[in-house]
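Practice problem 4.
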């Protein structure tokens, strides 16, 4: 899941070999500085730039370009390096840009080697600056994080390097300018205008005519989940929407001799339809109306058989990774297809208004048959445009639906729905999965096509199941209500669900998610703890308690809250110290090193100021050492603490116990309807999965 950062925000990195992809509105120079814990540079050898593009663990391009890809191996860096700063500067004599404010904001994406998005930052708000520290990768407690910096310098690269403590700043800046000057003829211009408007460089629909609507997506690269974004958080999820998440473009390609990555032209030939496809999608689209070819006059030849969708038809080292990339490729394809349809529909509406205004602008034409004919012609054109756009969308949806029918049965348990047959044969997992299904997503244009919402494991953000009736205004349309009544087994009416119903469904959702996490992890490597001060969650916790996966019922009252939080806080502190000192074998024997999921129910009942502080600490520091938070709470009930808890809510991914359109992808802002991952009504699959977890634990004990 791609984390879209804002200035000053940081994001943990779960790998050491990454690429940094830069897209700008004109040619820029990319460089990297390697600083110590205070960010100071040891000398010119701590700077990778076009004149010296290779340093230990770092490689940058040799020329100015509008698109860059920098290779970073954090594990190969010297121990003295604690900060890796990515610099952008405007070259002299290349293009017309003298300040960053004169072009589209640069965008920086940190990705895996296969293009999987990890974090992104768009440097908005730049003006007279000609050099900027875009992002920095820094070492903290033995792990690496990326921070969005966006610090600009109007005095150029020399001032930037001087600010980082380099005595030879002016000389090095001149050397970089000279190295770039030697490559003037190779300077890569800005991308074609069709690719502007999106931070990932893909073309964003700009009211195309219906004959240029989106064809089915063709060649997907390895994609990180575009995280659907949550309006309640500073960063959009997520989801990984969705990786929203947004640089889900082609994987790495071979650089040129000068170190620059060749780009693919984005401008279609004259008269050709606009193509929003990934350039490396492997599934070949089926033509809507193929024309039979002929090999001789009067001798028609049968058209070639269309390529059928195949499960796992995406880049990746394992089938699990290929399916993961394929699911989020489908998410991106659906996003683009619907965006093109909506753009074409908006174009048809605006054209209708313009033609009606033109026809009626002359008072002599406002009455009589001429005016009626003009209005009828304008409406006929509008209807034809919308019909043609919908036909293109239906064609794309038919292909995606066919792909979904193939992919869904092939998903492993961590990705599969509870009604999938894979759960009937599932036993104890042998290794940790790479992602987890949090539910399904769909758009209003096609409610029957549901895309799995996958998030990477371990969870970088806690989860918040919103059980507050005020926060959920039953915004779902009628088909979503019907789904809730049919699939969730609830007593929902046409009006908003009451508080008791929401709390019941919220707890069932929490138990279903906990059961899925337990089932897809190896036995003994994942555990669940519960805080329930009021003791009202026991009926929903019955599957966990009766199978023995949860050893005992949660202790009610403030004492139970304090005991659980104190134990988990101690575990986080000890594991952090062990990681920093590389002494994991020195942990006390009573410390459970298995990943922990803390389910908090009835917050803030039973929480005092000390407990709230510990909870916020676990939400911030716990994910890095295997402690994850799952809250079942109503935000309105926590208002007594004032704004002190606002950072907590923003740090969590909000999901709902009933379908609700509260998630948005980071590309075009579609409002996605989220559906919770509950088992079908009357099914015992959750209890069966927990029973197998308990059995595997007993077999594992000596």
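Answer key:
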């Amino acid at each position: 899941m791609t984390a879209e950062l804002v200035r000053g925000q940081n994001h943990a990195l779960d790998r050491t070999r990454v690429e940094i992809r830069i897209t700008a509105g004109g040619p820029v120079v990319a460089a990297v500085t390697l600083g110590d814990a205070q960010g100071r540079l040891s000398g010119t050898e701590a700077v990778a730039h076009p004149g010296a593009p290779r340093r230990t663990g770092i490689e940058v391009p040799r020329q100015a370009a509008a698109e860059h890809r920098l290779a970073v191996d954090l594990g190969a860096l010297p121990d003295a390096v604690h900060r890796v700063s990515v610099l952008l500067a405007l070259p002299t004599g290349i293009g017309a840009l003298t300040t960053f404010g004169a072009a589209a904001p640069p965008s920086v994406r940190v990705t895996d080697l296969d293009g999987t998005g990890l974090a992104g930052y768009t440097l908005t708000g730049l003006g007279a600056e000609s050099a900027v520290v875009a992002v920095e990768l820094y070492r903290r407690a033995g792990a690496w994080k990326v921070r969005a910096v966006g610090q600009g310098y109007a005095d150029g690269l020399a001032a930037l390097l001087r600010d980082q403590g380099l005595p030879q700043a002016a000389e090095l800046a001149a050397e970089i300018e000279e190295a770039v000057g030697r490559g003037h003829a190779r300077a890569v211009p800005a991308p074609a205008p069709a690719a502007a408007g999106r931070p990932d460089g893909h073309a964003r629909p700009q009211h195309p005519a219906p004959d240029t609507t989106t064809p089915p997506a063709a060649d997907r690269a390895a994609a990180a989940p575009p995280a659907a974004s949550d309006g309640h958080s500073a960063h959009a999820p997520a989801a990984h929407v969705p990786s929203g998440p947004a640089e889900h473009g082609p994987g790495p390609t071979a650089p040129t001799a000068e170190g620059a990555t060749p780009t693919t032209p984005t401008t279609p030939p004259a008269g050709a339809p606009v193509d929003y496809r990934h350039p490396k999608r492997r599934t070949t689209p089926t033509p809507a109306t193929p024309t039979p070819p002929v090999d001789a006059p009067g001798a028609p030849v049968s058209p070639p058989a269309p390529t059928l969708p195949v499960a796992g038809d995406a880049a990746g080292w394992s089938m699990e990774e290929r399916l993961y990339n394929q699911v989020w490729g489908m998410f991106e394809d659906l996003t683009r297809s619907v965006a093109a349809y909506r753009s074409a529909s908006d174009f048809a509406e605006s054209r209708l208004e313009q033609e009606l205004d033109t026809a009626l602008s002359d008072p002599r034409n406002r009455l009589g048959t001429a005016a009626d004919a003009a209005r009828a012609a304008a409406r006929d054109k509008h209807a034809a445009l919308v019909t043609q756009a919908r036909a293109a969308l239906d064609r794309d949806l038919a292909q995606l639906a066919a792909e979904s029918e193939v992919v869904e049965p092939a998903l492993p348990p961590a990705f599969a729905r509870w009604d999938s047959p894979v759960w009937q044969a599932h036993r104890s997992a042998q290794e940790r999965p790479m992602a987890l299904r949090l539910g399904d997503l769909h758009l209003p244009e096609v409610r029957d096509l549901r895309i799995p919402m996958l998030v990477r494991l371990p969870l970088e953000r806690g989860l918040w199941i919103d059980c507050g009736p005020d926060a959920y205004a039953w915004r779902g349309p009628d088909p979503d209500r019907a789904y809730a009544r049919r699939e969730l087994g609830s007593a929902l009416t046409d009006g908003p669900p009451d508080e008791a119903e929401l709390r019941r469904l919220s707890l069932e959702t929490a138990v279903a998610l906990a059961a899925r996490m337990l089932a897809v992890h190896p036995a003994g490597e994942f555990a669940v703890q519960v805080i329930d001060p009021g003791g009202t969650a026991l009926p929903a916790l019955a599957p966990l308690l009766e199978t023995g996966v949860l050893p005992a019922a949660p202790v009610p009252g403030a004492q139970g809250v304090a005991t659980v939080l104190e134990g988990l806080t101690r575990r986080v502190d000890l594991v952090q110290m062990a990681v920093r000192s590389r002494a994991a074998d020195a942990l006390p024997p009573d410390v459970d090193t298995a990943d922990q999921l803390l389910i908090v129910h009835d917050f803030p009942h039973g929480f005092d100021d000390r407990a709230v502080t510990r909870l916020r600490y676990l939400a911030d520091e716990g994910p890095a050492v295997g402690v994850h938070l799952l809250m079942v709470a109503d935000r309105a009930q926590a208002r007594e603490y004032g704004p002190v808890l606002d950072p907590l809510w923003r740090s969590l991914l909000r999901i709902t116990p009933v379908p609700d359109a509260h998630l948005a992808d980071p590309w075009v802002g579609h409002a996605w309807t989220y559906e919770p991952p509950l088992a079908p009504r009357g099914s015992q699959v959750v209890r069966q999965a927990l029973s197998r977890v308990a059995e595997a634990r007993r077999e594992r004990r000596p």
